[in-house]
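Action item from last meeting closed. Structure (489 res):
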């Protein structure tokens, strides 16, 4: 075997072990008994130690030095393995193991604190997570910016300053448009109750409508919807609320966007570094374009309106036009995952500023709740009423995902670019969506973006698919046109 072949064989086993670790995480969120958390923490730490040892194995450096890539994909494989190796060797193995153990246990403590509305119960473990992640960031940064080192894990090639520049450019337009919308009468909201079993039946139909392959996936329930896995085993979760079926349906469509991306990557890349989404920002572009530009479009909501009437009977919305307005209503709310398109990015900007301050040491964990509440009231004009609607609402910080939040808004930016290109390239798109037919859109995304996995950098992935440099203007144009129509601005 050549050095390249030996490296890829070694890497395949490493990727397989990583998938096993991911399956443990899926189980912890969906089916694991609550009392198993301490043992699961040890299990996660043990497998992380094995993965860290493999990713930092000196033979990887030797193979990288000797390997000759056979083609463009091979060059990309070497690039990604090298990037992973160079980052991994900077982090001591004991630290990586400790982070895996503490964050696994912290996840359960966050869930309990959230249920009890008890920030004080969560502060000690979050302090430990922040300290460990800052230690990791310092090792990775090697004298550079700690937060930049964190972002590199999720959106390589991007920096905190680069994100701040994009957010600063977006913010005035979002705030101005929101002010105009909130001066208008609000659309009628859903009322009554919606059987949760019927919600799950329709949500599984929606998953299939958007191209999710149930032969290689499943839909379960979790407190915080997520997707997990790649290749031949890609799982998603959703959640239900008797009074808010949109929470279930659009969480599902969102996670299907993630899941379909993973399922549609070329099988040639299975269990290789190219066999997953290239970055969290690009990943989020898929979930957001499925959920919003496609799933909340006037055409598709017309079809969904009829499906909901079939599932639940008359639910008080007069017609498809009124339903479209209801689906896209701009409303007050605390929860990021339930936010309308117009205000969603403001929720992300809040988290971005806070976690950047946590990583720099400018904000202490004990002061996080107060800082969150102050920033939220300044941004949204009303006070947080309870911790589960404030700094305890998201799982991300408990599991150490610092640098992850801004990729949600980067995904919206990328989705704006992709949607502009999609409408250009797929004639009759609205007529298809009105029939509940998404294949024109999803096939375009598979062909131009999803099948390529990690072949290109995040920026080049969007350029290749959309034919333009990533920028925020297509997203703002889309939002202005959509909400001006709905609210008669």
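Sequence:
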């Amino acid at each position: 075997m050549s050095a390249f072949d030996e490296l890829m064989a070694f890497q395949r086993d490493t990727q397989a072990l990583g998938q096993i670790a991911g399956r443990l995480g899926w189980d912890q969120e969906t089916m694991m008994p609550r009392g198993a958390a301490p043992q699961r923490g040890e299990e996660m730490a043990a497998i992380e130690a094995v993965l860290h040892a493999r990713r930092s194995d000196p033979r990887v450096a030797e193979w990288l030095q000797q390997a000759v890539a056979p083609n463009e994909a091979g060059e990309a494989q070497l690039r990604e393995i090298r990037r992973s190796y160079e980052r991994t060797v900077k982090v001591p193995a004991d630290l990586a193991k400790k982070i895996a153990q503490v964050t696994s246990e912290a996840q359960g403590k966050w869930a309990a604190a959230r249920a009890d509305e008890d920030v004080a119960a969560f502060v000690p473990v979050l302090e430990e997570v922040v300290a460990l992640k800052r230690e990791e960031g310092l090792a990775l940064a090697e004298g550079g910016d700690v937060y930049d080192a964190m972002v590199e894990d999720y959106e390589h090639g991007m920096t905190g300053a680069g994100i701040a520049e994009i957010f600063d450019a977006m913010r005035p337009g979002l705030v101005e448009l929101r002010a105009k919308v909130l001066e208008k009468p609000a659309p009628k909201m859903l009322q009554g109750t919606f059987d949760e079993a019927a919600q799950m039946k329709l949500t599984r139909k929606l998953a299939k409508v958007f191209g999710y392959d149930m032969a290689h996936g499943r839909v379960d329930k979790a407190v915080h919807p997520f997707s997990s896995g790649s290749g031949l085993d890609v799982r998603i979760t959703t959640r239900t609320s008797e009074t808010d079926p949109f929470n279930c349906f659009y969480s599902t469509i969102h996670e299907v966007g993630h899941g379909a991306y993973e399922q549609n990557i070329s099988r040639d890349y299975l269990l290789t570094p190219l066999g997953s989404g290239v970055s969290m920002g690009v990943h989020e572009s898929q979930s957001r374009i499925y959920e919003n530009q496609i799933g909340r479009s006037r055409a598709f909501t017309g079809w969904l309106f009829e499906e909901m009437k079939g599932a639940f009977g008359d639910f008080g919305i007069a017609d498809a036009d009124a339903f479209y307005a209801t689906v896209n209503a701009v409303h007050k709310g605390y929860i990021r995952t339930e936010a309308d398109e117009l205000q969603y990015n403001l929720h992300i900007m809040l988290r971005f500023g806070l976690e950047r301050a946590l990583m720099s040491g400018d904000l202490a964990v004990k002061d996080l709740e107060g800082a969150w509440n102050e920033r939220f009231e300044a941004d949204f004009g009303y006070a947080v009423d309870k911790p589960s609607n404030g700094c305890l609402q998201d799982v991300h910080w408990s599991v150490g995902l610092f640098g992850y939040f801004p990729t949600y808004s980067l995904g919206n930016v990328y989705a704006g670019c992709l949607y502009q290109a999609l409408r250009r390239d797929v004639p009759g798109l609205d007529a298809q969506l009105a029939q509940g037919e998404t294949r024109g859109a999803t096939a375009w995304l598979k062909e131009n973006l999803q099948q390529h996995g990690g072949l290109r950098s995040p920026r080049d992935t969007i350029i290749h698919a959309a034919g333009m440099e990533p920028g925020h203007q297509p997203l703002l144009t889309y939002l202005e046109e959509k909400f001006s129509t709905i609210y008669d601005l």
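Note appended to the action item: The CA atoms of residues 30 and 222 lie 6 Å apart.
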